[in-house]
Amino acid sequence: MRIVEVAITLAVFIFVTASATGFILGRPLFVSYVYSDSMKPTLEQWDLFFINPLSKGDVGDIIVFKLDGKWVVHRIYAISGEGYITKGDNNVATDQQDGKAEPIKRGDVAGKVITIGGKPLKIPRAGKHLNSPYVAVGLVLFGTILLTTGGKKSRKSRKSRRRFLTISFNTLYGLISTILLLMFVFSTMLSWGTIGIGYASTAAGGQREGWYLPGSTFTENITVENRGLYPLLFILEGNGIGEDSAFMLFKGESKDVPVTVKVPEETRVYRENVHVYAFIPILPASTIEKLYGVSPYLPIAVQIAELSVLLTLLRLAIGEGEPIRIKSPRTLWS
């Protein structure tokens, strides 16, 4: 049974690590899910599928690739000298028809969708919950329990186990550590958000608030506030922010940041979005900014690794602890 537990633990570890790596890098590795109906009926929206990252596919294969900054799962329709011509099974035209997109380069392909008998290996609608934090919590807790329990049990201990529910110190410490790390992640990402500036490009610019002449420029302030209980390093991402893109705010502090907007020539309603990211400064601000330059999630990943090391060192310093024994319900009622 110990071999089975180790095998399951290893599988969970690989899955979680791959998912976390793909999440940080913004690139699907072994699993992903369908965002739209473009591959019906082969793949429905929210279907979870599996990827072979070692294969770039051939004509007729379904591949995952980057198109216009987004990851897409479509079938290879043809191969030209410039790259892959791709098409969704539910689409009339290819992605490249009428010059809408360039042929897909091999370097932009994440991998081929794994199929069995010509049909994708998939879990229907499971992708709807793939990014849920509860899934991550469940996997981490499951792996923690497997790693910290098991082993040979004596006849006496098995008899005692019938009367008591025993939680080992390692299991309890692992669960508490996991909860603390998840609380750190959630408390950090709760401060993330988007601030929008709505306006209209119109020939009647200036006659109402938010109306501007096509081709003109205007500046509007957005307010960023730290509503947390601790200092936060804020990093703003968007057009026209200028040099005030990164700054520290303590509890209750706020800052007005000017955003300069260039009004498009086409007359219609627009919305300029500024994405707000916040990080607990347990790393130097300059380090957080450099990590953010790679991915907004990378500073959190590095901070989690740092905290995990500290928790591990604390566990070693504490030494062996006594297990917690809770009376079994059957014992209480007997």
UniProtKB/TrEMBL annotation:
Limits of the Peptidase S24/S26A/S26B/S26C domain: 27-91
Residue ranges of coiled coil: none
Membrane topology per record: Single-pass type II membrane protein
Domain of life: Archaea
Keywords, in A-Z order: Endoplasmic reticulum, Hydrolase, Membrane, Protease, Signal-anchor, Transmembrane, Transmembrane helix
UniProt key word Transmembrane: yes
Gene3D superfamilies listed in its UniProt record: Umud Fragment, subunit A
GO CC list: membrane
Location of this chain's protein in the cell: Endoplasmic reticulum membrane
CDD domains xrefs: S26_SPase_I (cd06530)
A Pfam match: Peptidase_S24
Chief subcellular location: endoplasmic reticulum
Entries under InterPro entries matching the protein: LexA/Signal_pep-like_sf (IPR036286), Pept_S26A_signal_pept_1_Ser-AS (IPR019756), Peptidase_S24_S26A/B/C (IPR015927), Peptidase_S26 (IPR019533), Peptidase_S26B (IPR001733)
GO terms, biological process: signal peptide processing
GO MF entry, a single one: serine-type endopeptidase activity
TM ranges: 134-151, 172-192
UniProt keyword annotation of Zinc present: no
Described purpose of this protein according to its UniProt entry: Catalytic component of the signal peptidase complex (SPC) which catalyzes the cleavage of N-terminal signal sequences from nascent proteins as they are translocated into the lumen of the endoplasmic reticulum. Specifically cleaves N-terminal signal peptides that contain a hydrophobic alpha-helix (h-region) shorter than 18-20 amino acids.
Protein name per UniProt: Signal peptidase I
Organism of origin: Pyrococcus yayanosii (strain CH1 / JCM 16557)
